[in-house]
Amino acid sequence: MISCLGRVLSAGAVVTLLSAAPVLAHAEINPPTGAGVANQVEQIKMGSLSEKTVMSAVSSAKPADLGGILNYCIQSNYLTASEAWPVLAALNKKTNDVPSNSKGNMSYADGSTGLLKVGGKAPISLEDASTDIRRAACAKVEARAKSML
């Protein structure tokens, strides 16, 4: 009886694996794009975001989004760390978006991956903009962050 149960379980495990194969194959073709809302970002052709779209998103970004994007800009070398890091530290201290108790803000985390939430719409990724637009967006983010201090 035990050997019969083992065969049934083995057959059940095989069926489960086979039924999951299409899902696993799909996951290998289209891997997740990042943390949080990053998985909601549609696959957009690299460089396809317009300057108007990106600058509009930066203009309407909340402080937590700005802090995260500023972090992204520093880490991606679009801004000089020696100049932008003190602005980021001051903004984080003022907004408490990165509290010492390790309970951060998801908007900050998403921004750190280059994602900006635009109102109730799907987020946009700075990675989908050209390098020149990313640099301009980072300069605007830094200017907005400085104005909030």
In oligomeric terms, what are we looking at?
A: single chain
* Largest sheet, spatial ordering of strands: 1-2
Number of separate strands: 2
Shape: globular
Tell me the major beta sheet.
Answer: 2 strands, antiparallel
Based on secondary structure, the structural category is: mainly alpha
DSSP strand (E) fraction?
under 5%
Portion in helices:
55-70%
Averaged pLDDT, please?
Answer: 74
**Secondary-structure element series:** HHHHHEEH
N→C terminal distance? 73 Å
Supply Rg: 21 Å
Poorly predicted sequence stretches spanning 5 or more consecutive residues: 3-44
Compute the number of structural domains: 2
Number of helical regions: 6
Pfam families: DUF2501
InterPro entries: DUF2501 (IPR019637)
Signal peptide: 1-27
Protein name: Alcohol dehydrogenase 15 kDa subunit
Description:
This protein is mostly helical. The chain folds into 2 domains: 1-31; 35-148, no CATH class. 61% of the residues lie in helices and 3% in strands. The chain contains 6 helices and 2 strands; from the N terminus they run H-H-H-H-H-E-E-H. The protein has helices spanning 2-29, 51-60, 63-75, 81-95, 106-112, 131-148; strands at 115-116, 124-125. A two-stranded antiparallel sheet has the order 1-2. Helix 2 (51-60) packs parallel to helix 6 (131-148) and helix 3 (63-75) runs antiparallel to helix 4 (81-95). The chain is globular, with a radius of gyration of 21 Å. Keywords: Signal. This is Alcohol dehydrogenase 15 kDa subunit. Residues 1-27 form the signal peptide.
